[in-house]
UniProtKB/TrEMBL annotation:
It is a multi-pass membrane protein. The keyword Ribosomal protein does not apply. PROSITE patterns: ABC_TM1F, ABC_TRANSPORTER_1, ABC_TRANSPORTER_2. It comes from the Bacteria. This is ABC transporter. One of its GO terms (biological process) is oligopeptide export from mitochondrion. Gene3D superfamilies: ABC transporter type 1, transmembrane domain, P-loop containing nucleotide triphosphate hydrolases. Part of an ABC transporter complex. Transmembrane domains (TMD) form a pore in the inner membrane and the ATP-binding domain (NBD) is responsible for energy generation. It comes from Rhodoblastus sphagnicola. The keyword Transmembrane applies. GO terms for molecular function: ABC-type oligopeptide transporter activity; ATP binding; ATP hydrolysis activity.
Length: 597
């Protein structure tokens, strides 16, 4: 995602910006108003040399005081028009840039939320955050001030050239001969500027990703005394970002300096020739002054275009990175005509000959021809050694991935035939590592049900045995919990996650070691709450501690991605297979621990 294209042409800058153009077209009215203000401001600027010529040729005499007053008043009027139009142009253009970037950021973030977990298996969230901030800021500059300067410079350059020809065809011809010498290096160097700018953005994104990852694990960093090593690595990353940005700035500086020198030197050369024409009487001093002003305007506009082209090249690199995100299509999508899941929901689950391997490890199959069926309202526990495929089963059931072959059904509807959003609304998940957001407790519980009332939130918290500790917080359920819920204990975070699942009120409940972070007393209380919540719902429980699955209607024992045993606790112990061995290891260890105590 961060590779720099090996080859590009000057047109590539505009092509890279093409995905952003629809955002500008949506604000066409503002763009046209800004263009009108820009046209007026450019015209006012181009009128000034005409007034200067008239003042020089007609006003420098004692009996022409009225004439010189007239030209100065005309200049003041033109300056007034220029000031109003320039202010209007700035306001409209900058507002347009802000509006485009706000729309773009919203769309990129919305697209990121639709991408499936396979994308995030390899992507770095810190780098994606950099694209949402640094890259969009670069584009804001391109569609804001840079676009305004580019159009203004272009208008001024074309207008100045036209009026130069009108003033003196001979001198204009000499200037026009030198323009290709200035423009061709400008386009030729655009590729290098664009590549270096993109490299700078990529390097900065890597540094941001490293910082985000490590700051989110600040307690682990400090617990292991890893601050010096982490600081050194980030300093090295920051130095790399600086070096890449410095290279980009050097390329821009060389480009701008070259263009400014050539354009200004051409004006000096033409002025020298014009001075000889005035001495020989072939043109007046006013005409030379007028021509000189237009030549300066044209040269400065060309110089600004060189700088603007560098900015556009840098924005093209940023736009290309964002276009990569927008062009990435999710693997999990709704079909053209999704089947509706039956109402009322039953909660029936069926895996039929399911085979699966993670996208990054296609040669390592997790499941091969896995089949089982869970009846509506049945409570099923899934046990087995680490790596048996228990968590992957939940991932497939949530449709974070699709199987390579076979089918997964809920209430008789195959996963690929349903809308993923409707499918997931049938399932409530309590993960082993609960995710707590940096907002208040009430909003965390209502994360999957944003329209829930405070009464409903409190009822869910009470069922999860969380209401008492939440009310004891400084601001009750309005207390902000900090990033990742750092102000809560592990057990409190788990109960909050259980309350969130309870409030969702889905017909299928997935519990991934939902009581693993609780002490014995709270585990008993939460288990009682879960027993109540599981009534009338299909429940799948992943458990490493077998004591939590004794009351299951059925236990599926997994090993190597296959179901090797199934039945009740008593039946499986009687068979003296894998489950019985796991049970002896855990329960005997518990007895020995009690004896030692």
């Amino acid at each position: 995602m961060t590779d720099v294209p090996p080859k590009s042409s000057p047109r590539d800058s505009l092509r890279s910006l093409a995905p952003i153009l629809p955002y500008a077209r949506k604000r066409l009215g503002w763009a046209l108003a800004a263009l009108a203000a820009l046209t007026v401001a450019s015209a006012a600027t181009l009128v000034m040399p005409l007034a200067v010529r008239g003042m020089i040729d007609n006003g420098f005499a004692a009996d022409h005081a009225d004439t010189i007053n007239f030209y100065f008043l005309a200049l003041i009027a033109v300056v007034g028009v220029l000031a109003v139009s320039s202010a209007s142009r700035y306001l409209l253009v900058m507002t347009l840039g802000e509006r485009i970037v706000a729309d773009l950021r919203a769309d990129v973030f919305a697209h990121l939320t639709r991408l499936d977990p396979a994308f995030y298996d390899t992507a770095q969230t810190g780098e994606l955050a950099s694209r949402l901030s640094a890259d969009t800021t670069q584009i804001k500059s391109a569609f804001g001030s840079t676009a305004s300067i580019a159009l203004r410079s272009l208008f001024m350059f074309i207008g100045a050239i036209g009026l130069m020809i009108f003033t003196s065809t001979k001198l204009s011809a000499l200037v026009l001969v030198g323009i290709p010498v200035i423009i061709l290096p400008l386009f030729a160097s655009g590729r290098a500027v664009r590549a270096r700018s993109r490299d700078a953005q990529d390097t900065l994104a890597v540094a941001n990703a490293f910082a985000t990852e490590n700051l989110s694990a600040i307690r682990i960093m400090q617990a292991f005394g890893a601050e010096p090593a982490t600081q050194a690595r980030f300093t090295a990353a920051a130095e790399g970002a600086y070096a890449a940005a410095r290279d980009a700035l050097r390329a821009r500086a060389v480009l701008s300096g070259f263009a400014v020198f050539l354009s200004t030197a051409s004006v000096v050369g033409v002025l020298w020739l014009g001075a000889h024409d005035v001495l020989s009487g072939r043109m007046t001093g006013g005409e030379l002054s007028q021509f000189l002003l237009y030549a300066v305007l044209g040269a400065s506009s060309l110089g600004q275009l060189s700088e603007v082209w560098s900015e556009i090249s840098a924005a093209a690199g940023a736009a290309g990175r964002l276009a990569e995100i927008l062009a990435t299509q999710p693997l999990i999508t709704a079909p053209a005509r999704p089947l509706a899941l039956p109402q009322p929901p039953r909660g029936e689950i069926a895996f039929e000959n399911v085979s699966f391997a993670y996208p990054g490890r296609p040669d390592r199959a997790v499941f091969t021809d896995l089949s089982f069926r869970i009846a509506p309202g049945e409570k099923v526990a899934i046990v087995g050694p680490s790596g048996a495929g228990k968590s992957t089963l939940f991932q497939l059931l949530m449709r974070f991935y699709d199987p390579l072959s076979g089918t997964i059904r809920i209430d008789g509807v195959e996963a690929r035939d349903a809308d993923p959003g409707d499918w997931r609304r049938r399932i409530a998940l309590v993960p082993q590592e609960p995710v707590i957001f940096a907002t208040n407790a009430a909003e965390n519980i209502a994360y999957g049900a944003p329209g829930a009332s405070l009464k409903q939130i409190e009822a869910a918290a009470e069922q999860a045995v969380a209401l008492d500790f939440l009310r004891a917080l400084p601001e009750g359920l309005e207390t902000r919990l900090g990033e990742r819920g750092v102000t809560l204990s592990g057990g409190q975070r788990q109960r909050l996650a259980i309350a969130r699942a309870i409030l969702k009120d889905a017909p299928i409940l997935l519990l991934d070691e939902a009581t693993s972070a609780l002490d014995a007393e709270n585990e008993m209380l939460v288990q009682e709450a879960l027993d109540h919540v599981m009534q009338g719902r299909t429940t799948l429980v992943i458990a490493h501690r077998l004591a939590t699955v004794l009351a299951a209607d059925r236990i599926l024992v997994m090993q190597g991605g296959r179901i090797v045993e199934q039945g009740s606790h008593a039946d499986l112990v009687a068979r003296d297979g894998l489950y019985a061995r796991l049970a002896r290891l855990q329960f005997n260890a518990g007895v020995e621990a009690l004896a030692l105590a």
